[in-house]
Specification:
- With about 280 residues, the chain is mostly helical.
- Helix content is about 75%, strand content about 5%.
- It has a two-stranded antiparallel sheet with strand order 1-4. It has a two-stranded antiparallel sheet with strand order 2-3.
- The chain is globular and about 65 Å long.
- The relative contact order is 0.20.
């Protein structure tokens, strides 16, 4: 009886998509370690853990939106536009914190417009955000003049965004932000009615609407959150490297979707998680 239960448990564990993704990741890390034993050195891990959380934040937003059955391809543009606005405002004498707030406000507005056009216009989000991707990339390129811009944020703000905390940068601000936001997202998905609404909207929006769920509001809020996280992640990357360039989010939208799917999120909505 105990052996039967154990076999059943192992069978369920192995067939679980999340387990497969984690197991594959472990195998890849071991493979690269065998090829080069410096792969897991503190220095290399510090580099990995300073970059991975930045893209992870974008993936969290994209994942939540995909669970609701929508896509946002414009995250790559927002990823560059947000720090570009901050850099230009700081160059004009704006306070660094105010510049960051205004750039995030623009990011949220872009998400709101994406959600509004998708829900009220009845246009698929893939088409809407593909168009806004090109629009905001063009505007970012125009603002940059085709040149990199310095990102001179105050030291205190830089520490909040990308400060090293422990173990030569392995534990850093961006990692803590990623863990915190992922944890909150998971709690909301699994323990809050808003998470139930997200799954319901992605699974069957007509049934969700019949149950009294405001489908449009749920989707618009997720578009806003997705853009906010993309803009915040873009600020982190620019603070990390000390500059912002117009194409720094190149192919980020596809990477985020791929990461979400590998992590167990369905392309058809209604299924997925953030941790």
């Amino acid at each position: 009886m105990a052996d039967s239960k154990r076999r059943t448990f192992l069978s369920k564990l192995i067939s679980n998509k999340e387990f497969a993704a984690i197991f594959t990741l472990i195998l890849l890390w071991l493979f690269f370690y065998i090829l080069n034993n410096s792969f897991l050195s503190l220095n290399n891990l510090g580099i990995l853990f300073s970059v991975i959380p930045i893209y992870g934040l974008v993936t969290v937003g994209v994942t939540l939106l995909m669970i609701a059955g929508e896509f946002d391809l414009s995250v790559a543009a927002v990823f560059a536009l947000s720090p570009m606005i901050s850099a230009l405002l700081i160059a004009e004498g704006f306070n660094g914190y105010l510049a960051l707030f205004l750039s995030l406000l623009v990011s949220a507005t872009i998400g709101f417009l994406n959600g509004l056009i998708t829900t009220k216009g009845g246009i698929p989000s893939f088409i809407v955000t593909l168009g806004t991707l090109l629009l905001w990339l063009g505007i970012t390129l125009q603002l940059s003049g085709g040149e990199p811009h310095a990102f001179p944020v105050p030291i205190s703000l830089e520490k909040v965004l990308v400060g090293n905390i422990y173990l030569d940068g392995i534990i850093n601000s961006q990692l803590l932000w990623f863990v915190l936001i992922s944890f909150i997202s998971t709690i909301l998905l699994e323990r809050h009615k808003w998470g139930n609404w997200i799954y319901a909207v992605g699974g069957n929006k007509d049934a969700a609407r019949a149950k009294g769920i405001n489908v449009d509001l749920v989707k618009i809020s997720l578009f806003i959150l997705c853009s906010l996280l993309a803009g915040f992640a873009g600020l982190m990357q620019s603070a990390l490297y000390g500059q912002v360039i117009a194409n720094q989010g190149g192919n980020l939208e596809l990477d985020a979707i791929a990461a979400a799917v590998i992590g167990g999120t369905s392309l058809f909505g209604g299924e997925g998680f953030t941790c």
